[in-house]
Amino acid sequence: MSNFKLTSLNTRMATEDDAHLPAYDHSCLSAINVCPTWGILRYSMHKRMPGSNRSMALEAGSAAHEAFAAVRWYQYSRFQCNTDEARTSAEKQGPRLFGTEERFRRMLDVISDTTTHRTNTINFAIEALESCEFYDDIGDSRRTISNISESLIAYIDAYDMKRYPIWVRDSDDPNTDIGIEIPFDIVVDIEWEDTESRTRTLQVRFIGKMDGLHWNKDKLIIIEEKTGARLDDHWLSQWVLSHQITGYCLAASTFTGLPCEHALVSGMRIPIGKIPAEGIRREYVPRTPLMFEKWANWFTTTIEMDQQWRDSVVDAPMYTHSCNRYFNTCSFLPFCAATSVEEKEHIIEEMEIDTWSPLNT
Questions:
Q1: How crowded is residue 24: how many other Cβ atoms within 10 Å of its Cβ?
Q2: Which pLDDT belongs to residue 277?
Q3: Percent of the chain at pLDDT above 70?
Q4: H-helix or E-strand containing 93?
Q5: pLDDT tens column, 96-117
Q6: What is the DSSP letter of 272?
């Protein structure tokens, strides 16, 4: 690894000609920083131990995001679509967001012209939740359909349909992009100098999915949805400087062609708790130029780690402080505990392939 003095940071939307470039998303890079062995095995090599338990926190969060997208679609459809072109665009976005035309139509069936926006939004969001692939696990009494539904009601009660309008690329185009669950694939070109004044360069793809692109008056703002068991100030502290938020602001600017230095983190507690209002938190976390420079440093340093160890993961460092994360044992512990290189290589051969990409979720 080398010291870092940023010279330039440029981005553009990826094209078919860029398919040869390696692609990285925030989850992959963050995992490599938690433990290079775990991150490279799971996200770079797409490996999984046979018989691994469900990741209920990730699954529940993914299910909740389907409902968050439903709330945003309702906001766009009922509060912003005032032309035939806009209404057509809302209809066309449904299958993209919710998988199939049939599922989207079932969701639309719960909306009634004779009831309130609150009731319609709740019904629409919960239908999105109940029609997704998430299901209860007998071993987890907290992350259940019922608990997520209760949290969603509190989330909707706190949601202001008019405060942050959905970003729309072209309101006159029925096929326009809108700021709901936006997948992005951008090329990042970074140039920097190391301690010996050598010029270093990196060109890779950065991929991911933004939850919400909105307008904060006349400023573009990303809104990232988070679920968790607690939403205190310690929870907030992880997002104030988060490289995920910074990277998504960079992606939003590239995708829209507009500057984006504004971000809001929206938290929903599961279960919601005895006082529902305390289970919802929305905090403004703006970005500064220095944060983008720090992001570039983190981005290049982490990719260098991946490139160094990807083809020899048995030699990658083991960060043993993360063998137990969130009160669960790392599923790759048998691999790391193996007593010989040959045994480790055999375990890798026995692992299952479970390809991860945020563009497929």
A1: 22
A2: 87
A3: 99
A4: helix 84-98
A5: 999 999 999 999 999 999 999 9
A6: -
Read off φ and ψ for residue 263, nearest 5 degrees: -150, 150
Angle separating helix axes 145-157 and 117-130, nearest 10 degrees: 150
Nearest CA-CA partner of 214 in 174, 290, 266, 149: 266
Chain-centre distance for alpha carbon 313: 26
In Å, how far are 69, 77, 83, 108, 115 from 91, measured between CA atoms? 14, 8, 13, 10, 21
Answer yes or no: are the C-beta atoms of 181 and 332 closer than 8 Å. no
Is the CB of residue 264 less than 8 Å from the CB of residue 154? no
Helix (H) or strand (E) holding 228: strand 219-228
Provide the token pair at 108. 């639309």
Q: Helices 243-256 & 289-309, crossing angle to 10 degrees? A: 100
Which residues make Cβ contacts (< 8 Å) with residue 185, sequence separation at least 6?
13, 14, 23, 205, 206, 207, 359
Q: How far is CA 264 from the centre of its chain?
A: 14
Structural tokens at position 153: 């009601």
The conformational region for residue 273 under phi > 0 = left, psi -120 to 50 = alpha, else beta, is: left
Segment among 105-109, 154-158, 273-277, 305-309 with least mean pLDDT:
273-277
The reported pLDDT for the residue numbered 361 is 64
Mean pLDDT for the stretch of residues 236-253:
96
Residue bearing tokens 């997002």: 239
Cβ(119)–Cβ(74) under 8 Å? no
User: Which amino acid appears at position 3 of this protein?
Assistant: N
The first and second tokens of residue 244, run together, are: 């995920």
Of all helices (H) and strands (E), which one includes residue 296? helix 289-309
DSSP structural state of residue 276: G
Q: Which long-range contacts (CB under 8 A, 24 or more apart) does 297-300 make?
A: 297/4, 297/6, 297/192, 298/29, 298/33, 298/243, 299/24, 299/29, 299/188, 299/190, 299/206, 299/243, 299/247, 300/4, 300/190, 300/192, 300/200, 300/202
Spatial CA neighbour of 260 closest among 299, 303, 291: 291
Q: Which helix (H) or strand (E) holds 307?
A: helix 289-309
Round to whole Å and give the CA distance between 125 and 108.
10
Strands 199-216 and 180-193: antiparallel
